[in-house]
Amino acid sequence: MNKSLITNLISLLLLTLGYVSQNHIALYAGLFAFSGAITNWLAIHMLFEKVPGLYGSGVIPARFEEFKAAIKKLMMEQFFTKQNIDKFLNQEMASSAALNLKPIIEKIDLAPTFDSLTEVIMNSSFGGMLAMFGGVEAVQPLKQPFVEKMQASIIEISQSEQVKQALKEQLEQPAMMEDIQANIENIIDQRLNELTPKMVKEMVQTMIQKHLGWLVVWGGVFGGLIGVISAIISAA
Question: Residue 183: pLDDT above 60?
Answer without folding.
Answer: yes
